[in-house]
Amino acid sequence: MYGVNVVAVLLVALAGGIGWGIRGCYGGAPGATLPGALIALTICLLSGRADWQQASLFIAAVTACGLAYGGFMSHVKLAHFSRSASHLNAAYGLGALFFVTSLWGGIGGGALGLVLGGWSPWAIIILAAGMVITARIAYYLLIDLIGIRLTPPRDERWARTFGAFLCMAVVCVVRREHAGLVGLTYGYMGWGFGFLVGMFIQLLEIRAFGHYSFNWWRAMEVTIGLAGGAALAIGVLPLAHSLPELPRLAPPWLALGAYFTLWFIVLLHVRTNLRHYKLNGVLLEGRWARRTALWLADATSVALAVVIGVILAAWHFWGPADPRVGVQASLLGLAGMCVFLVSALDFGTAKNKRPRMKDKRPRIATAWWFVPPYILLIVGTLAMPAAFSPPLVHGVGVADFWKYGIPLAVVLAIVFSKISSSLWDKDPPQAHRRFGPGADNDVYGSIPPPKPYEEPTATR
User: Fold this and answer.
1) pLDDT digits (tens, 9 = 90+) for 252-306
2) I want to staple 179 with a disulfide (CB 3.0 to 4.6 A). Which of 117, 159, 190, 368 is the partner?
């Protein structure tokens, strides 16, 4: 069994932490494209494989789309169940949170493994179409027909993601796609345990330091990215020693991957920033006052597309022959643009004259958190040796991961919920109940209004 260097695992984990932390500022499927691209680019960079590095932007685009699929799910309600002072509700919230959020990483990791395993772009498109069909069937069977509800009264789109995940898993098993199974398994476990442990740490931090003293939710998001990136690094990087050489991609696919990764992902974040500024009054003065956020985003889109086109053309004719340099430039450029945007979003919030939050307690902004980790990513990738030497970390077999990982998740959910629920003698802020008195699980009802803030008292 091949191992992977500890430094390589830390660098991929760092890329995942930056990407998923920034994703927390934007949310949804668009935000999840960034961590998928950053993790894939870092893995290609550290693999030492010239064929992976030459196709890195297409690989990053496929991984980003796979990881973004889970962004259509709603998991916030499960996090609110986890906050309950009731052991039963907290255990349900943590257990369901593991099940739902692990699907996120499973599809993204499976997509990464399949494209590294040599799947052609057309094969990936056909699989994606099959996953969409299976997702609809699963939703009908699980929600409409059987009536399984995990996040009432919110949307139950987890069933669609579960159907898509099953489709990918069955294809990998039937076709014996080892790389796909490795990516799917490590992604599933990485994101599942990342959410489970991250949520538990958040509950401890809220109890110890107070709900409004810091953005603990963002700290959880960073923890998730670190765990997911590390898991995929441990599982996927050793495949660089055994997988055959990738078929050379046609230029149109390489161009499509380049524009999706370096242009479309950035544009998604630009649009969100401009809408945020317009909503909060930052663009109501000066030359931007007569421009809509959509117009500004479109203008930025055209300008950015031209700039990237010129850079790619110049790189093709006059760039260095070493493909590793191109991966480094793409990784650091994409991460740098999004770190700048999220920092600018924080600046826009600070300049906001009409804050959305009525609560006047001071909060420590976390958007600038990502600048020091980004500097570490720059130093780590530029100082990276051509080939890593020991110490090595060895992964767990796919079958063993499923054999022991799921029972471990159940045990941790029970233990963590027992500890967290014992911290309060009444529900903390933003807590919801799935069972028992005060349960708000009416499928056709509305989400109850937020509870007035009171500092929870610790159990004696």
Assistant:
1) 999 999 999 999 999 888 888 887 777 766 666 666 666 777 778 888 888 888 8
2) 117
Q: How far apart are CA 241 and CA 4, in angstroms?
A: 10
376-382 long-range contacts (CB < 8 A, ≥24 apart) are 376/14, 377/11, 377/14, 377/15, 377/18, 377/331, 377/332, 377/335, 378/332, 380/7, 380/10, 380/11, 380/14, 381/11, 381/42, 381/45, 381/328, 381/331, 381/332, 382/328
- Secondary structure (3-state) at 285: coil
Write down the pLDDT at residue 156.
85
The percentage of the chain sitting over the pLDDT mark of 70, rounded to a whole number, equals 84
Using CA atoms in the order 363, 367, 368, 369, what is the torsion angle rounded to 10 degrees? 90
User: What pLDDT does residue 35 have?
Assistant: 93
Sign of CA dihedral 241, 245, 248, 249: negative
| 372 occurs within a structural domain | no
Q: Residue 363 domain-assigned?
A: no
Q: Is the dihedral of CA 172, 173, 178, 181 positive or negative?
A: positive
The answer to whether 138 and 73 are in contact (CB under 8 A) is no
Contact 95, 192 (CB under 8 A): no
Q: Which pLDDT value is given to residue 127?
A: 96
For residue 258, being part of any structural domain is answered with no
Cα of 397 vs its chain's centroid, Å: 24
CA-based radius of gyration for the chain? 22
What letter would DSSP give residue 279?
H
Residue 394 burial (C-beta neighbours within 10 Å; 0-12, 13-18, 19+): exposed
Q: What is the pLDDT of residue 427?
A: 79
Q: Which pair of structure tokens corresponds to residue 55?
A: 């196709």
Secondary structure class of 460 (helix, strand, coil): coil
User: How many angstroms separate the CA atoms of 48 and 71, rounded?
Assistant: 31
pLDDT at 138: 94
Q: Is 360 within a domain?
A: no
CA distance 16 to 40: 9
How many domains, the chain? 1
pLDDT of the residue at 349: 61
- Tell me which residue range forms the domain holding 397: 3-252+381-421
Q: What is the DSSP letter of 73?
A: S
**Helix axis angle, 28-47 to 6-26, nearest 10°:** 160
Using alpha carbons, list the distances in angstroms from residue 49 to 43, 187, 335. 10, 21, 22
Low-confidence ranges of the chain (pLDDT < 70): 1-3, 209-214, 280-290, 346-367, 385-392, 440-460
Instruction: Classify the phi-psi angles of 332: left when phi > 0, otherwise alpha if psi is within -120 to 50, otherwise beta.
Output: alpha
